[in-house]
Design a protein that fits this description.
Elements (H helix, E strand, L loop, with lengths): L3 H15 L2 H12 L4 H7 L4 H10 L1 H14 L9 H5 L5 H10 L1
Helix pairs in contact: 1-4, 2-5, 4-5
């Protein structure tokens, strides 16, 4: 019988293997230079959807990623909306807006 705790631990371990600290640091550095998160992920050989999924398994990285995305986001976009997301913003507010839509 599998337990949810085992599944969560396995997911976190897989996320840690896929995104070791060195890769996470390089990603954050790229974001701070203005590279879009999806482009930065691809440059590092990471599927962007997998990046956000793995970040949910690594809470301290998720906080750092979200803080960086908030700091680097375009102030002229309507954040927290589907429009912001469609204009490629991936801040937590725009991701939440698209998730509410589905």
């Amino acid at each position: 019988m599998r337990h949810q705790t085992d599944d969560a631990e396995n997911s976190a371990a897989n996320a840690e293997r896929e995104l070791p600290p060195s890769v996470r640091g390089r990603l954050i550095a790229k974001l701070r230079t203005g590279v879009h998160v999806e482009d930065a992920a691809r440059e590092l050989g990471i599927n962007p959807q997998r990046l956000f999924s793995a970040a949910r398994m690594l809470p301290s990285f998720e906080e750092q990623l979200d803080a960086t995305l908030m700091a680097e986001r375009d102030p002229d976009l309507p954040h927290g909306t589907v429009t912001g997301y469609n204009k490629r913003c991936r801040c937590p507010e725009c991701r939440a807006a698209i998730n509410r839509r589905f």
